[in-house]
């Protein structure tokens, strides 16, 4: 496969942030273009980027407008750059199809790792890896085999209900990406038309975590006030089953 620089479009009207991002991304091997408004972003999109970093408050409108247009057109992944504590905006953005979000002020290392993850997911979608490969979804010692509709934890098969299986499948298909409760409810609702309410989701998450074993946050992380994400944590590299006979901790779900 031909190797090329990934192109990132930064849509940001704060010149200080823009300058810092531009040089940092350039130093890290990305080809960068910038737009300070929705209008400029429209022009820049003529030469489609591989990823967009999107500020929500722009001088000529809401970044959300661009996000929606981008999703309708099947555009590149979008990472929202937003001020801290704008929980409502983050939820709106993720529900509108943003791939991820980073709150300002952000650490460059974190932003770079989010960018790499979003580009990797987009590349996996485009590159359509072999069928066998896409049949196995993994996170730590959890393996979901789509072909056989089976789940194993640490090599041992775990029996899940249809709802638990579907929930795990959605989370693993979007590994390292925060999914809002609304989005999860919509996707779960799709299966067979049964209405899944917020309480059902909480119960499903709790049961699924119990079946996956260990610390409840081991595979399925609670993103406070927003939703959930499947992510590998350093913790799980240790064998939690033999962790000094420590009982599984069943913590409260912070989203309740
Ligand atoms: Ca702004």
TrEMBL record:
Keywords: DNA-binding, Phosphoprotein, Transcription, Transcription regulation, Two-component regulatory system. One of its GO terms (cellular component) is cytosol. One of its GO terms (biological process) is regulation of DNA-templated transcription. Residues 134-232 bind DNA. GO terms for molecular function: phosphorelay response regulator activity; transcription cis-regulatory region binding. It comes from the Bacteria. The modification 4-aspartylphosphate is found at residue 55. Residues 134-232 form the OmpR/PhoB-type domain. Residues 7-119 form the Response regulatory domain. Coiled coil: none annotated. May play the central regulatory role in sporulation. It may be an element of the effector pathway responsible for the activation of sporulation genes in response to nutritional stress. Spo0A may act in concert with spo0H (a sigma factor) to control the expression of some genes that are critical to the sporulation process. This is Stage 0 sporulation protein A homolog. It comes from Eisenbergiella porci. The lineage of its organism: Bacteria, Bacillati, Bacillota, Clostridia, Lachnospirales.
């Amino acid at each position: 496969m031909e190797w090329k620089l990934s192109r990132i479009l930064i849509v940001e009207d704060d010149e200080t942030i823009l300058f810092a991002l531009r040089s940092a991304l350039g130093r890290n091997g990305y080809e960068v273009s910038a737009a300070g408004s929705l209008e400029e972003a429209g022009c820049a999109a003529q030469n489609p980027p591989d990823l967009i970093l999107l500020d929500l408050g722009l001088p000529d409108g809401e970044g959300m407008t661009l996000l929606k247009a981008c999703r309708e057109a099947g555009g590149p992944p979008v990472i929202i750059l937003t001020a801290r504590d704008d929980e409502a905006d983050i939820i709106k953005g993720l529900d509108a199809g943003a791939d991820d979000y980073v709150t300002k002020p952000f650490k460059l290392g974190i932003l770079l790792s989010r960018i790499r993850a979003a580009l990797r997911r987009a590349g996996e979608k485009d590159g359509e890896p072999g069928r066998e490969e896409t049949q196995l979804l993994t996170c730590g010692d959890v393996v979901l085999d789509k072909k056989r509709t089976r789940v194993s934890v640490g090599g041992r098969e775990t029996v899940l209900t249809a709802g638990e299986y579907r929930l795990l499948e959605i989370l693993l298909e979007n590994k390292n990406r925060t999914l809002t409760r609304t989005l999860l409810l919509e996707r779960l609702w799709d299966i067979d038309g049964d209405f899944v309410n917020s309480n059902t989701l909480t119960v499903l998450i709790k049961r699924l975590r119990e079946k996956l074993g260990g610390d409840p946050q081991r595979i399925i992380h609670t993103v406070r006030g927003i939703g959930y994400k499947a992510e590998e944590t350093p913790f799980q590299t240790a064998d939690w089953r033999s962790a000094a006979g420590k009982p599984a901790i069943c913590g409260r779900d912070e989203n309740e």
